[in-house]
Design brief:
heterodimer; A: 329 residues; alpha/beta; 5-stranded parallel β-sheet; 5-stranded mixed β-sheet; 13 helices; B: 336 residues; mainly alpha; 0% strand; globular
């Protein structure tokens, strides 16, 4: 029995030993199987920590800095150019200060975004209408809405950015800021590349020595948009010349007929705000025939809302394509 | 002419100086501050060698000449209108602005620009002119109109009230206008930049009628200066005088504001200057105040082009800039 015991013990021992070996093998096997997972888990640990806070972006804007803890989803914009910025990154605002007329948003922008609520005019947006939409981000025009910045900030985090009187490049910088705020930097970069290629292609196609001038006309007068205005800087970006030589730092310059005669562009692109304009009167004058645009019939009527009211990537593309189509004719 | 010749020698020198200031301003404004670097020589060339293909000559003939003529005539109109207002109300602070003509014109013009109701159907100039007439008639009727017991104070109070109403409407329209607001604002400061021969042909016939009417009231205004009751007892029909004066002021100011926008202070300053330089006879004061207004507006228009060329500063701002210090000077000197 004792021997038996011995045997049993031995066998037990050997069994134990075997079991131990098996355990080791299992452990090694398990380790080798799990290690990539563990490794990945170890790697992901700080990453997951970051991704939880990845929306904590800090953006410098015209009224200070704004930190957003999560990606805003209910956005209200108080200027047209900001809608363009959201549209190119596939974000739809819930509210727009559209002056109560949806057609104020140009079609190329309208097509990319969903329906929105009007929050009144850009000049005097309704704070109540904005608050009713429960936004988590308001993008306001620092030129217009400076005085209501505090009120807007009480409703939701507010970005104050420039919308009017800035150039094409300045506008792109503003657009980039907006894309960061809504966590769409990657989409924006991709779209920007496509945009820059389009602009460059058109620039190469359009190359010539004529001078181009965009102007807004009303029944009260004509305003020339210089190369420091939005439309003017898009024209410049396309490598086209401006007929203006002085006061080019002033974006909009009121022009009498005498000044137009002096500026005398080869191409005059006009956007009308009113049905009857001073141009109707000027065209009857004997001096009209002395203008280059009258001799070459290069007076072109364009959409004031695309060329002047809106600014942004889509508007710039439309301006560039419109110019290209007229030049090819 | 009797009055002029009987005046003291310094008083015959004054009209000569006044006229030459006006003529000088007129000539300089024909070629001054141009993008085309026009010279006085170009004026001479037009007379000796007219050339319809020369752009400089064409600029002077089709843009500068009507502009200077209109500026002078509007200045003349406003000067006369101001004197009429002060003569009628016997109040040194009265001016055509009191009649709410400017604010009426501005109001309807702004409503027209934003496409408000049926106003948008009217041509802009017609809307402005009817606004001017409407504002003026409203003040006239609220201020007593044809009633014999009405007095000048009532007219002034009516003017203040109507002015307030119309300017608040204009402001509301401006807020709605937004994108076109800057073009309306520019118009609201008064400008001659859109003047052409068509404007001149609209201006002179109406001005002529209104000026003749104005001069026909000068004797009545002389007597009115003694007080309404005295004038009445001297055989002046005050109601009839008031109607004629108001009609003249209405026409003179309405046509001016329609073409060039509200040009302030001219109607206030020119009469005071005229009184300081000449005697108190309205037969002399009327042309004198008119000429002073013309010279003032002509030089102001010239200045408006020279401050930040090639952009034009609205001429109404210049007249206010010249007018305000002058007005303060008058107050300090105790001339008011």
């Amino acid at each position: 029995m004792r021997q038996n015991d011995e045997i049993t013990k031995i066998s037990d021992d050997s069994l134990d030993d075997n079991v131990y070996h098996y355990h080791l093998i299992y452990l090694v096997l398990l380790m080798s199987l799990l290690s990539p997972l563990l490794f990945a888990a170890l790697l992901l640990l700080p990453l997951s920590f970051i991704s939880q806070q990845s929306h904590a972006v800090t953006i410098e804007h015209d009224a200070g800095t704004l930190t957003l803890d999560k990606t805003p989803t209910r956005i209200v914009t108080l200027a047209f150019s900001f809608v363009d910025a959201l549209a190119v990154t596939g974000v739809s605002p819930v509210g727009i200060a559209d002056d109560g007329d949806k057609n104020r948003i140009i079609k190329s922008v309208r097509d990319l975004i969903g329906d929105w609520q009007s929050v009144g005019s850009r000049y005097q947006p309704s704070l109540e209408a904005i608050a009713a939409l429960k936004p988590d981000l308001i993008i306001a025009d620092s030129g217009r809405h400076h005085s209501i910045y505090k009120d807007l900030s009480l409703i939701a985090p507010t970005l104050m950015l420039q919308s009017r009187g800035i150039t094409y490049r300045e506008n792109l910088a503003v657009m980039q800021k907006i894309s960061r705020a809504v966590d769409k930097s990657a989409q924006f970069k991709k779209r920007l590349k496509k945009h820059q290629k389009l602009m460059l292609d058109l620039k190469n196609q359009l190359h010539n020595n004529d001078t181009y001038q965009f102007a807004i006309v009303t029944d009260k007068g004509m305003w020339l948009h210089s190369p420091s205005s939005y439309a003017g800087s898009v024209i410049k970006e396309l490598g086209l010349n401006s007929p203006m030589t002085n006061n080019i730092n002033e974006p909009y310059l009121q022009s009498s007929f005498e000044q137009l005669l002096k500026t005398n562009p080869d191409w005059l692109l006009v956007g009308q705000y009113t049905e009857h304009t001073v141009l109707d009167k000027w065209q009857k004058s004997p001096l009209w025939k002395m203008l280059s645009v009258a001799k070459s019939k290069q007076l072109i009527h364009v959409s004031a809302s695309v060329w002047s009211l809106t600014s942004g990537m889509l508007a710039a593309e439309q301006i560039a394509q419109e110019l290209a189509s007229h030049l090819k004719q | 002419m009797n009055i002029l010749s009987s005046a003291r020698q310094s008083k015959t020198l004054t009209p000569a100086l006044l006229l030459s200031t006006l003529i000088l301003g007129f000539i300089i404004s024909l070629y001054g501050q141009s993008e085309f670097s026009l010279q006085a020589n170009d004026l001479w060339q037009i007379m000796i060698a007219p050339d319809s293909q020369d752009i400089k000559q064409q600029v002077i003939l089709s843009l500068r000449l009507p502009r200077s003529l209109v500026a002078c005539l509007i200045g003349f109109n406003l000067g006369v209108a101001g004197l009429l207002m002060q003569g009628l109300t016997r109040n040194p602070l009265a001016s055509p602005t009191l009649f709410a003509i400017n604010s009426g014109a501005a109001c309807l013009m702004a409503l027209n620009s934003i496409g408000f109701a049926f106003f948008s159907a009217l041509p802009s100039e017609l809307a402005t002119f009817s606004g001017a007439l409407l504002g003026g008639l409203l003040v006239f009727s609220l201020g007593g109109g044809l009633r014999s017991d009405s007095n000048a104070l009532r007219l002034i109070l009516a003017g203040i009230a109507v002015n307030g109403l119309l300017s608040s409407l204009t402001r509301a329209a401006l807020i709605i206008a937004d994108d076109t607001a800057y073009s309306i604002l520019h118009w609201l400061s008064g400008s001659f930049s859109e003047i052409d021969w068509h404007s001149w042909s609209q201006l002179w016939p109406l001005s002529l009628v209104a000026l003749l009417l104005a001069f026909s009231t000068s004797r009545g205004l002389n007597l009115n200066a003694l007080g309404e009751q005295t004038a009445n007892s001297l055989g002046i029909n005050i109601t009839w005088l008031r109607v004629r004066v108001c009609l003249a002021v209405l026409l003179l100011t309405s046509i001016s504001v329609t073409l060039a926008g509200p040009i302030v202070f001219v109607g206030l300053i020119a009469p005071h200057l005229a009184r300081a330089l000449f005697n108190n006879n309205h037969l002399v004061l009327l042309p004198a105040s008119g000429l002073l207004g013309a010279a003032l507006v002509c030089w102001a228009d010239l200045l408006s082009r020279s401050i930040i060329p090639p952009a034009e500063t609205p001429v109404g701002i210049i007249t206010a800039l010249i007018g305000t210090p002058f007005f303060i000077f008058l107050v300090l000197k105790g001339k008011l």
